[in-house]
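User: Please write out a complete single-protein record containing the residue sequence and its fold in token form, without commentary.

AI:
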Amino acid sequence: MADLIFENPYLLLLLEHFGLDLVMHEKTVKQLFSENRINEKVFITFANLNNGCSPSVSGVFDFEHIETIIGFLRNSHYYFTYDKYPEIPFHIKKLFEENPTAEIRMIEKFFNDYFLEVSEHLDYEEGIAFLYFRCLPYSKVPNHNNEVTKFSGTEYLEHHTDIESKLTDLKNLLLHHVSL
């Protein structure tokens, strides 16, 4: 595992999101994940996604992997909410101090609106989607009207796509309208 991290240091963040200790010693991938009760196939699929590779058909997971995947997503949410996103307003403010233009204010507003939407999406995942996914192994989502039955895979995908397209828009704003 240490050799893989040496070749691709981005794996460290992936391992952190799986909640793993970052000291590898001489453990193989199989040993590391066996000791931590994480399915090796789940990790390899996520590592491939992280490297821009599309998952194969064999990348489909069993219900037993749901908790591992939800744990990974929760850790990722925490990382972006409390580590990465708070850095961005700081950098936008610094850009504005160096170049006080309407464009920078527009980028700041765009980012604040974007982050609000991301926060709402993460809350939706935490409060509704994850509960729904946890019910799947039992093949029956409760029929009474509660938060779990309000889940819509189509709505979830549309919202995810919207967030990703807004992130692309933000990148384009930065690349085309900010001069340093």
Notes: The mean pLDDT is 83. The two ends are 40 Å apart (CA to CA).
